[in-house]
Amino acid sequence: MTPHALITGSSRGIGLSIAHLLARNSHRITLLSRSPSALTSALSSLPPVASSSLPHRYIAGDVSSPRFWSEEFGEKFMEGKDEGDKIDVLVNCAGITREGLFARASEEEVREVLDTNLTGLMVGTRWLLGNKCFRGRKARGEGGGEDRQMPVIINVASLLGIKGGRGAVAYATSKAGVLGFTRALATELGPLGIRVNAVVPGYIETDMTEGLSSSSSLLAQIPLKRFGTPEEVAHAALFLIQNQYAHNCVLNLDGGLSAV
């Protein structure tokens, strides 16, 4: 059966690059983001599913909304749900940032970042687990075929969750929480046959870092002297998906910035 990947924050940037790479590696994709128009464009850019009667699709919605997962997402995801809709790969990539000194940030700005980057991620993952949306692992020798890969959750964190950063207190806090969530959830889900890992990107060429890649002072701090690409982050995610012993694995992808 064609493996199925649900990717949040996947209408552009890192999330869309992961979707493209998984689609090229024989996964069926469900994109999830806020903008229907951006999702329509993203969906049309994916290579077709080679060996599945079920096509790629998208679900539009705000992961930070308290009712999104239980009502909007639940209704759309469960509609016509069959074994093919079970999730093999969950990539939690939705994220926003708000620049500015913490003391000057409004309560609404702080809550928006935390609700999108951390609370929404946790609530969504909990909903999917509670509603048994993950496909069970095929036991060795069952049906006489090859072992099926264990379901896996990939959380996209950030180097700022480890090092911190001026003007990004709420963002850094949320991403540090993503790493804590990854480690704690890994201890609970490993015995149940679900792996949990995290990718920790440094500075990546996306809309979120637009204009920063020309900063000579910032580039000077990065040992490789450049920003990474969304495609390079996607390859790191693919490694964590394919390697069946990768569990509670936190993979830095920052050009060496975490070493200085």
UniProtKB/TrEMBL annotation:
Record's keyword terms, sorted: NADP, Oxidoreductase
BP term (GO), one: fatty acid biosynthetic process
Lipid biosynthesis recorded as keyword: no
GO molecular function, a single term: quinone binding
Gene3D superfamilies according to UniProt: NAD(P)-binding Rossmann-like Domain
SUPFAM superfamilies registered for this protein in UniProt: NAD(P)-binding Rossmann-fold domains (SSF51735)
Domain of life: Eukaryota
Keyword match Oxidoreductase: yes
Entries under PANTHER family matching the protein: 3-OXOACYL-[ACYL-CARRIER-PROTEIN] REDUCTASE, SHORT-CHAIN DEHYDROGENASES/REDUCTASES FAMILY MEMBER
Family in the record: Belongs to the short-chain dehydrogenases/reductases (SDR) family.
Name of protein: NAD(P)-binding protein
Organism: Polyplosphaeria fusca
